[in-house]
Design goal:
4 helices; globular; about 120 residues; mainly alpha; about 35% helix
Length: about 120
């Protein structure tokens, strides 16, 4: 059942937290749990999406379950529609986080599966 406020554990929960914390920890203020409103509470700058607000039938769940694609949502600013003159500040606050996050593409296993004779396995 879908309910806001309920932590939804994924099989890759540890990895999701690691990636989210990589972003938050490299942001200028995100990991400090700066509150944009009195309702905000993001310890260490991260949250579990379903615990924050649950979306039934969302693309993130579909992609994760059916294509092994791990997606994170990043709220770059508290303001839904920031004025253009503030964009440079948001870029400055998020640049290092974005770069550190992109570098994580290199983690994990890599290689080519081969037969005993060293030929690549098709498929």
């Amino acid at each position: 059942s879908h309910r806001d406020g309920v932590y939804s554990v994924a099989p890759d929960d540890v990895t999701f937290k690691y990636l989210a914390k990589t972003y938050a920890d490299n942001h200028k203020t995100m990991a400090k749990n700066v509150k944009c409103s009195r309702f905000d509470d993001f310890p260490e700058g991260i949250t579990n999406g379903a615990q924050w607000y649950d979306i039934k039938g969302g693309m993130q769940d579909f992609n994760y379950l059916h294509s092994n694609c791990m997606e994170l949502t990043v709220e770059l600013t508290c303001c839904k529609h920031p004025p253009g003159k503030t964009l440079h500040r948001h870029w400055d606050a998020n640049k290092e986080s974005l770069l550190f996050h992109m570098e994580k593409v290199h983690m994990g296993m890599k290689g080519i599966v081969t037969t005993k004779s060293g030929k690549p396995v098709k498929g």
